[in-house]
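Hi team,

Filling in the usual template for the complex we talked about on Friday. All components are listed, including any nucleic acid strands or ligand strings, so the model treats them as one assembly.

SUBMITTER: L.P.
PURPOSE: interface mapping
COMPONENTS: three
RESIDUES: 863
SEQUENCES:
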Amino acid sequence: MGVDARHTATVYGRSLWAHFRSVVEYPADFWVMATTGIFWQIMSFGFVTILFQNVNAVGGWGYHEMLMLVGFLAVAAGSPALYWDGIWSIADQVADGGMDYRITRPAPVMPQIATLHIGLQGVGEVPLGAAMFVYGWIGAGVGLGQIPVALLLFACAAVIQVAMYTIANSANFWVKGRVPVFGFFLVEMQNEAMRFPLPVFPMAVRVLLTFAIPLAFASFVPVEILNGRASEWWLLGPPLTAALLAALAVWIFRAGLRSYDSAGH
Amino acid sequence: MTTHSFAVDRAFAIIALKRKLAYRWNWAFSIGFGALGLLVGLAVWRSLIGSGSLGGYDWADMRAYLIIGFLTGTLAWGGSDWQMADRILDGLISIDLTKPVDFQRARAAEYIGSMISVVPTAVLGTVAAFLLFRPAPPASALAAGLTILSVLFIFPMAFCVNYLAVLMCFFTRRYLGIQWLKDGLLSFLSGLVVPVALMPIWLQGLCWALPFVHFTTTPSNIYLGRIDTPGALGLIAVQAAWTIVMWYGARLIWRQTIKKVTIHGG
Amino acid sequence: MPILEARSLSKRFRRPDKKSGFNGALKHLVQRKYKNFTAVDSIDLEIDAGESVAYVGPNGAGKSTTVKLLTGILKPSEGTVRVMGRDPHTERIANAHDIGVLFGQRTQLWWDLPVEESLKLLKHMYRVPEAEYRLRIERFDELLGLGEFMPALARTLSLGQRMRADLACALIHAPKMVYLDEPTIGLDISVKDRLRAFLRQLVDDGTTLLLTSHDLADIEEVCDRIVILDEGSIAYDGPISELKARYITTKAVHLILDGPADLDALREKFPEYEWAAGQAASEAVATYETVRSTTAEVLGHLTARLAPRDLSLSEPDIEDVIRRLYAGELAK
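RESULT (copied from the run log):
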């Protein structure tokens, strides 16, 4: 099909950059969004801190480990807003036929869609989440030697998140309507459940969140690896999951495009 | 503006209710989200409390707290604040202003109409949760009655909070960020994320100085008898006071804003 | 070799067969029933390089579906499409470089970006060299007045501005084959005139054009050939001039008489014409077939016998012809 990686990267980068500049031109919007991201993380921090004023452990995890978990989750799940947020517009693009134009252009459709929007809450969320993670890291006494592992785990988590968002939103190729219901459900589930260590939940839920909807590999498992609760073998999990989900996302998105019937325009 | 009658309010409310019911997916999912939060909450607090208690909540109390939180959360997030925001952002407001209706009352009627759409499932869900999880019973029959009264105040209060948030759209191009900020404040300061009783004293003070606490903590405190009958009546009076203050506060902001701000696309 | 070639092209959609309302939706969940609906039914179409083709038909005739099949957005249910020898659906990206598309009902501008940014993004997407890009922007500015709203956000444009900007987007890479679906919809007369002149220029410069429109002035001013679609199949395909010659076979003389027109008396006196009432009481309209008599004969005949105070001539326009074709009044 003549997909040219360099050309695709140019299209992706330029589109993202143009959007970034355009959003920044409206300071009120920029600050509302950035503040929202900051506020979410302050809330997260407040939540964990309040909890630990009342209890000594959550699911066997201490305060600093919990901060690592919540911080890792914020960075992994929040950063795609800065580089893959447009994927949330699949529902809209299908509903109003905007997809038609993307298909007639000489570049892959997915990066065109993914750069249709930038979620500036990420500007607040990612640095604060990272700060929480680092604070937890130091408090938990994780060694500096783990930094390369941490970077690898963050990269895998980002890929897993991007792939999961893509898959959930691709459901809107088939489920018509302007609301990305599956995407919302995924985010809600992750926000509610994944800020706690999995041992808090019944076995069935743990299995579900590790293997069926493998959200655990984007936050819980990496932190378990870093604080030494999981054996080294688990280190294979995140890269494998990332590769598998990325392939699945591409496959499902393509299937969605094939079934796209541009109805009603 | 004297032509605005109750019949007009009712008409607005019914249209909004019908519109909301037409989007079956959103409606089903708003309940689904609440149920998800409830189940996660039950798992987490069970493991935290065990056979002891936290902030004066034992496990049975906490189950009641979480179920009340499910009910009040579903109601508080049941309205269509997006529709109000879009009226301002799309410039439809310039049409609204030519009509012989009171803008704020019309939006209130619409908003409460859309909230009513979630009432049947919220109530059914609550009853089902009560039967399944057998939480602590209400402190007394009177407490149960006052809890219901206090929950009813969520309708006007939710409108006021959302309307005040929506008025910020005069200064931005989008509502999303404002909405998320409002949602975050509401869920944290109401006690939906973590009960207010577990917070440090200074934060508890802040919570009780703001209206959000009356969305979850007030009804559950009355229900569990953490406060006596005069105290309960006092809290309900505070809910009423907040409703009035926010309602007229919104009018004041509206009057100041409409003078200064050019209407989007108008 | 034709630039575009479609052979027995068909597209069927599967539509959920459900009743309206909540009960209907519930029923559909239980027993999923679908109906097949043929939007495009075995169409053959060939377009040569440089042609300008109008593609017309009533709402729901399958015009937009055909455009989507030809541009590769949809996969045909049956039949084949070749654009410059390529299958536009399977060779999507290669084909995209050679085609330009505009859907008048929707914009391809990035909603939150200035018009200029949208054009620049497209420039990169289509790999248009900087010098060529500048030249084209200059030309678009000259012909479409693009400059005045280049820095404006797409969401703030008027409909006319938006359409002009969209046209520039569709043509920024100088495509050889251009598809325009309702490019003048909702525009005021002055913008329409400007667009038509621009499109005519485009055709004269050698671009191949397929245009769908409900506005027949678009078609007559821009296109040489017309394809009329009805219920998914082609009802007519040929030069516009030929369509006129074939179906516009009558003319009418409008006569203003002294005093009220007595149609019965006129019919009795001149049975060789069809008589009808005019707009005023004193106006009578005589319709005659152009194969039977020449205009000079008819005029001479009528003026000599009736001595009208005034008269004028009219002929049915192409709109009438197409209306009658849709209605099945004319042989296809």
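MY TAKE: Chain B touches chain A at residues 23, 25-26, 29, 32-33, 36-37, 40, 43-44, 47-48, 54-55, 168, 171-174, 176-178, 180-181, 184-185, 188, 193-194, 198-200, 203 (CB under 8 Å). Residues 6-260 of chain B form one domain.

Thanks, L.
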